[in-house]
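Appendix B. Raw example, untouched.
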Amino acid sequence: MSEARIDIHPILGEKETEGTVEFNFNGEPMKAMPGEMISTALFANGVRVFGHHHRDGAAQGMFCANGQCSQCLVLADGVPVKSCIVPVKPGMDVRSMEGLPKLKADDSLSGYPERPEVVDTQVLIIGGGPAGLMAAVELAEAGVDCLICDDKQVLGGKLSLQTHNFFGSVKECFAGSRGMDIGINLEKQVYEMVKVTVWTDAPVVGVFDDGLAGVVKEGTYTLVKPERILVTAGAREKTLAFPGADIPGVYGAGAFQTLVNRDLVRPSEKLFIIGGGNVGLIAAYHALQAGIDVVGLVEALPQCGGYKVHEDKIRRLGVPVWTSHTVLRIEGEEKIERIIICEIDNKFQPVPGTEAEFFADTVLVAVGLSPVDELFHEAKKANIPVYSAGDAQEIAEASAAMFSGRITGRKILAEMGMESEIPEKWYEMIDMLRARPGPNAGFYPPPEGEQVYPVIRCEQEIPCNPCIDSCSKGAVTIPEGNILGRPKLDGECIGCMKCVAICPGLAISLVDKRYDKDGINAKVTVPWELPEGTVEVGQEVTTTGFEGEVIGRGKILRFVSGEWLNMRMLMQLEVPMEDCDKVAGIRIREPLGKEAATSVRACDDGEVVVCRCERVTKADIVKYIQDSDCRDFNTLKAALRTGMGPCGGKTCTNLIWGIFRQLGVDFGDIEPHLERPFTQEVPLKSFLGGDDE
């Protein structure tokens, strides 16, 4: 087995496989797992550079792992494909795209164009993530025919990549369960519904004025005639443009989670993260679970925007977090050689003299999400009744997407003239699930005079209540009366450890002062989800407080495991009695300090690639806007080819808006990027049928 493969994951266990598939890359024999994507197989075999761009010879590799860009383009049996969405086949000959290769004739292009099949449905749901699945349940239970189209091989959307326990309400949105398990349960529920038809591997690529939607169903172009359309296509990652952001090894957090949590491939040894929202913080934790060293994380704002419990759990393990910092540049050609970070002021400008350097092989960009809503706007233009839910409507957590789907499903029923009630508490719930985390208000102090009790370290108002429902004695309560309140112990604790086991934020420890009759030491139980062998029973460790501060020393007594823990383990520590209320975890690595960078080159806009597909730089775009007084995205497209590549502007459009803003151009004066079908490439053979005659 390749060293890049994760043989056993602390949450996912061991990947079930049946043999291997042999293929070649640039003439070298390699092995893949059955059904895995070409890009994953290349990473598992140690390949990070997939080819070189025809325009300037720049190295190309993984970026989105979601079929949204063209960074991973390769030749598979002579045909150019996006390697992240095309599975390996036995004997496949994969080659790098070097320049513009001469393509051989495609023997599969036989037959003639024929009118596609037209399928009728009452509601077409575009996207099989949490919002789409919950909406389908609401509609189907009322007797409405639904067709779910999703571009992936399985339903669940990004839930399949989420190994952590979810926040929210236990009764309303499966809080306390792991995202991947929620996805499996929703998928099963939908497949059992007679009124729901599911097409996987079936991207919707266009919505047209005649009321039809184009779908590439398992490689064949098909038309769907819906009465209504619900867009639940989720979100795509935003990115940044700075010198070196296009080097192989710099990619999105979603791509990283795809490799690690879907494919069980370890794509990195040392990782650096840009972005302190929930996505970046969770990706750091997922990396540690995969045995990857996380060198550090930077966040441009004065404090991380994600839940504090996510930040604190990586700080406890020894990951440094620098706020009011950004990555200034990344150096290297075929791979990352040096990362330069710096402090930024309140106008987000670099502070000279604060540059520091780090060394890692991978940088994750986790700086927010944009709704995938192109088809929503196309349907509106075509006067088709259209709705959106989940991240396609408003970026929030998956628990909010589930509620959004339920509410929108019932809205559709009402507009169809069917009896449908939306409880007022649903609106209250979704507002809470979408709410930003509240200020750090501190947590309730541990009880005095008790011998066994949990220390519940919820400092922010975030929607979460699994600890309440899990308590065997009902002793954990929320004084504020709703799931945004901060829980506290308000009764007798029997030491069952259930609250420690279920807390999504890993924010609860259990103190047992009965452990030592002499009163010198106490036993503290903390959650543990890292790889076997990270630490051992009997080992002396550095104990840390909730925010990662060093408390002292402790000894590992034992690990508690069992089915009731849902793949989590509990670590029991012997610590000095005076430390027991402060200990929240242990350190597995010493945090790196900032070392001053030497010989830092000034950033040049000519180094900053904005349009990755066509290799158009920021300098190119700035010069054209200034020289021509351009106020039209489409003029830029015609002049510089921005947005003309396979991604169709999905990556560069937001960056170009930012350039207009930097140049002081009023957004109201700008003609936006014109979206045209198809929203992604459709192979010519998808339209062909019959025979050569």
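End of appendix B.
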